[in-house]
Specification:
Elements: H1 2-20, E1 34-40, E2 43-44, E3 48-51, E4 54-56, H2 58-69, E5 72-78, H3 84-89, E6 95-96, H4 104-107, E7 110-112, E8 117-126, E9 142-145, H5 149-158, E10 163-166, H6 169-177, E11 183-187, H7 188-197, E12 201-203, E13 209-213, E14 216-218, H8 222-237, H9 240-248
Parallel strand pairs: 1-5, 1-6, 9-10, 9-11
Antiparallel strand pairs: 2-3, 3-4, 6-14, 7-14, 8-11, 8-12, 8-13
Helix pairs in contact: 2-8, 2-9
The structure holds arginine.
Arginine (ARG) binds at residues 40-41, 43-44, 48, 81, 98-101, 119, 145, 148-149, 187.
Length: 252
């Protein structure tokens, strides 16, 4: 009897060994996944910002979903806003995503995917400012973030000598609070975030420019452009993009 039992046990062990040593049929482990690099400027809440060492925001979340669609792992590369397009052109990053406005000038340098969001250039002033509208900006000192549309347009409209360009939007806000500039021109959602974080500032009712945000891809890399567009289409259709945006921006 004992012998039979131990035989059964041995057989069971062998069976188990065979079954258990079989590799589970999982997908490619993460370490082997292709990495796709996103160039951004993570000082632009709620689109991209840092929380400790982690990158967060609408663009980061959308890019994470796009990477998943492409079977790749997202790597965020933080840089000056002004360097993103060059970095895309030189292939240091695979795409640029930074609440970046589609403009004719930029279209000469990179390709843009379909647009995933709308941006509005607005004017931030101190609550007690005598600047009431866009005309009130004439002859005033305007703070901007270097290389942004707000920076480029205001230099055109109000004169280069009247515009002070900062490396970060937040630095322009500090300058505004310190009285170094009279107004800051920046995109509406970061504007709201900055005004919420800083007392005594307000956003003018008049909108300066209405724009489309899209992802910048190297001219030659039309394959990636098509893939990202297909992913954007899917993520729009299934509601993922709306859900991500709603996570960061409450509907008014
Ligand atoms: N929408 C503006 C532009 O394209 C500003 C974007 C700034 N983005 C950023 N992540 N700092 O010029």
């Amino acid at each position: 009897m004992k012998k039979v039992l131990s035989l059964i046990l041995a057989a069971a062990l062998i069976l188990c060994f065979a079954a258990c040593s079989q590799q589970p049929a999982t997908e490619t482990p993460d370490a082997n996944a292709t990495v796709i690099k996103m160039g951004t400027n993570a000082a632009f809440p709620p689109y991209e910002f840092k929380e400790g060492e982690a990158f967060k925001g609408i663009d980061v979340d959308i890019a994470t979903e796009i990477a998943k669609e492409l079977g790749a792992k997202l790597e965020v590369v933080d840089m000056e806003f002004d360097s993103i397009i060059t970095s895309v052109q030189q292939g240091e990053v695979d795409f640029g995503m930074a609440g970046m406005t589609v403009t004719d000038e930029r279209k000469l340098e990179v390709n843009f995917t379909s647009s995933y969001a709308t941006g509005v250039q607005v004017v931030i002033v101190p609550e007690d400012s005598d600047i009431k509208d866009l005309d009130g900006l004439e002859g005033k000192k305007i703070g901007t973030q270097l290389g942004t549309t707000g920076d480029i347009y205001s230099k055109d409209d109000y004169g280069e000598e009247n515009v002070v360009s900062y490396s970060k939007g937040a630095d322009a806000i500090i300058a505004l609070k310190g009285g170094d500039v009279d107004a800051v021109i920046i995109d509406n959602e970061p504007a709201k975030a900055f005004v919420a974080q800083n007392e005594g500032l307000k956003i003018l009712e008049t909108e300066y420019a209405i724009e489309d945000y899209a992802i910048a891809v190297k001219k030659e890399n039309t394959e990636l452009l098509d893939k990202i567009n297909a992913a954007l289409e899917k993520l729009t259709a299934d509601g993922t993009i709306d859900k991500i945006i709603a996570n960061y921006i409450s509907a008014e």
